Amino acid sequence: MTDEHFMRQAMQEARKAFEDGEVPIGAVVVLNNRIIGRGYNHVERLNDCTAHAEMIALTAAFNTLGSKYLMEATLYVTVEPCLMCAGALYWSKIGRIVYAVADDKNSYRRATGDRSPFHPKTKLEAGPCSEESLQLMKTFFEQRR
């Protein structure tokens, strides 16, 4: 299985968010080439500002494993994580984060600059599907204006 395969799974989650009127961000957590957690934004549905795709996917992964650490897992997320999600990812000790599109306005970098908020062993990478993710976000916000 490839990064593109799993990012496409995250994109499916983002499309669910789009269809529900949520900001279209999706995430999957993968361990040993198996998805152990999925999530998409539920902020509006749950009236909960913490119900981000990453948080939901992490919770599902923790429940699947019965563990609070994901040192060997990879998170695939369609948009670069915000500072809140970066904090949760730090505590999860996730091994790798792959995001499709950078978010200069709302990502963790807005608060941390060049300092990484992730666990020292976490690898962070830009990945596939950037154009598709960017277009989905643009379409979502154009429809709301």
From TrEMBL:
Residues 1-111 form the CMP/dCMP-type deaminase domain. The active site is at 54 (proton donor). This is tRNA-specific adenosine deaminase. GO terms for biological process: tRNA wobble adenosine to inosine editing. Keywords: Hydrolase, Metal-binding, tRNA processing, Zinc. Transmembrane segments: none annotated. Binds 1 zinc ion per subunit. It comes from Chitinophaga arvensicola. The gene is tadA. One of its GO terms (molecular function) is zinc ion binding. HAMAP family: tRNA_aden_deaminase (MF_00972). SUPFAM superfamilies: Cytidine deaminase-like. Homodimer. Catalyzes the deamination of adenosine to inosine at the wobble position 34 of tRNA(Arg2). It is an enzyme of class 3 (hydrolase). The keyword DNA repair does not apply. The lineage of its organism: Bacteria, Pseudomonadati, Bacteroidota, Chitinophagia, Chitinophagales. Its EC number is 3.5.4.33. InterPro entries: APOBEC/CMP_deaminase_Zn-bd (IPR016192), CMP_dCMP_dom (IPR002125), Cytidine_deaminase-like (IPR016193), tRNA_aden_deaminase (IPR028883). Its cofactor is Zn(2+). It comes from the Bacteria. Zn(2+) binds at residues 52, 82, 85. Belongs to the cytidine and deoxycytidylate deaminase family. ADAT2 subfamily. It catalyses: adenosine(34) in tRNA + H2O + H(+) = inosine(34) in tRNA + NH4(+).
